Amino acid sequence: VFESVIKWVKKDLDQRKDFLTELMEHVRLPIIASRPDILLNIVNEPLLKNNPKCKDFVIEALSFNIQKSVQYFTIPQTIRCKPRQFGDSQKVILMFSESDTSPRCYTEWYDPATKLREKAPGINDGRQKAGLGVIRDQFVFAVGGVNYSYSQSVSMLDVSSQSPSWVPMADMVVGRELLGVGVLDDCIYAVGGYDGNRALNSVEVFDVSNQKWRLVASMSTKRCNLGIGVVNNRLYAVNIYIISLFIICNQGLKLVTGL
To answer: Which residue intervals define the domain BACK in the entry (predicted)?
Structure first.
């Protein structure tokens, strides 16, 4: 893609160089630059080096890839850093299954359009009682519930990566299994669960700014093996008997009521 753009500009440089900046605003350089050979071409390309705005795009691509090399999880902030989204027919579902061999928990891609399944990266720890959440159709989180027991452990899979693999993330504050996981405003919420002795009412959220978990308002009732849903910027915790409603406001997460 990058080389095609450059060839297109060079074809009639005098007439088209004024449009280079506008064009490069829509080229996903940070994603393309994950390949070292392409990154070298980008850095050394005269058309980009001689254009101040395009140099900013190159610096953005370099910074993005440096950041991803030292920390696993980055929320894309611009269209250039966000992987392309395809039509619903090409959406892929990630399925989990238990295994008696290594990896203990293997995963598969399923494409509804082709109805085909293929192997995906596995997790060495069994996640039979974990919670799962996805941010921006790109980052898959497996939270708690390791090897039939409660755990603070969290793993993440970046499905847009050239070589996707499960990587460890910051541990939760509280060890949990049979918990509920919800995603709201690019944040992962771990709700309730079981700590090996009792059901939990505590709730914590993964802060992407410092990649740490922090406790927020607790539920009024302890519950495990629950479901989580998000409707109109509200996080719902649901089990057989009780529904708790949280509202996101300027002061943070607030428990409104239990039904």
So the answer is: 1-34
CB 1 within 8 A of CB 27: yes
Max mean pLDDT range (7-11, 60-64, 162-166, 225-229)? 225-229
168 HSE (CA, 13 A, CB side): 9
- For residue 5, the model assigns a pLDDT of 61
Give the pLDDT confidence score for residue 6 in this predicted structure: 63
d(CA 114, CA 199): 42
φ, ψ at 63 (rounded to 5°): -65, -40
Residue closest to 96 by CA, chosen among 115, 68, 77, 122: 122
199 contacts 190 by C-beta, under 8 angstroms: no
Query: Pick from 52, 49, 47, 30: which is nearest to 39 by CA?
Result: 30
Q: Which two tokens stand for residue 129?
A: 């009682």
Q: Considering only CA atoms, which of 86, 23, 18 is closest in space to residue 57?
A: 23
pLDDT tens, residue by residue, 92-111: 788 888 888 777 888 888 88
CA gap 195, 149 in Å, rounded: 8
Across the beta sheet with 105-111, the strand order is: 93-98, 105-111, 116-123
Task: List, in sequence order, every beta strand (DSSP E) within the chain.
Answer: 93-98, 105-111, 116-123, 131-135, 139-143, 154-158, 166-168, 180-184, 187-191, 203-207, 212-216, 227-231, 234-238, 243-249, 252-258
* H and E: helices and strands count for the chain: 7, 15
